[in-house]
Amino acid sequence: MAAIAMVTAIYPVQRKMIDIHTHVVYGVDDGARSLEMSMQMLRNAVEGGITGICCTAHARPGHRLFPAQDYLERLELLQRFLWQEGLDLCLYSGCEIMYTSEAIQALRGGFLPTLGGKGAVLTEFMPEIPWGMMQHAVREMSNAGFHVLVAHVERYECLREAFTWLEELKEMGCFLQMNAETVLRSHGLMGDRWARKALKTGLIDVVASDMHNLTSRKGNLPEARAMLKRDYGEETALRLTEDTPRRILEGSLWEERRKGRSANGW
Ligand SMILES: [Fe+2]
Fold first, then answer.
1. How far is the CA of 98 from the centre of ligand 1 (A)?
2. Angle, nearest 10°, between helix axes 131-143 and 163-171?
3. Domain presence at residue 8
């Protein structure tokens, strides 16, 4: 398979609400199932005030070939649709990589798109992964030069059982993404307490929809943003749904951290 040459932020990043974890490109994973569904998901996003979407199709190196050509062709087709409809929404390339022993090789070979082409990787693990394995995986990714954004961080047993590992992930240089659904719905007393603590202490960097369709896993970032604003204040809501995702897509977050002058003190 040819390496993906176009792993770029094709369109300029705008300073508005950005959904950095979605499955809106049809027919490449378990997300949107048709062009029509993709188009409606995008229309809904625009109505909700979203101006940037990163299309993070599932990738599982060593288990399933990432359908790079279909993905890129459909991403472009959808962006053209948005332009033709006059909809103010920019699409960015990316993927949600399930960490496997082949992950680094696939990324280094350019077979998978990083977020906006800026070197950050939305990374997921098996929910029951032991902490030591997650720690090892993050180290491997970092040593290979990739910035890790941990997908739906609330999903992993080891992190729910020991909050200290969440803090250690941050110390290792990871950024942490929580799903909008976790902000919006109760997931049991302990789960709610864990999520509130993670948000209140500032450990969560990004909230995103992880939308897959128009019904059971639909876009819900605008609702989550309103809830975040009510419960944690406007500044936090903006940081989680706008500023940090924008800086990840620009690549500026890592540069700021390297220079030790991050506005958020990371
Ligand atoms: Fe996802």
1. 10
2. 10
3. no
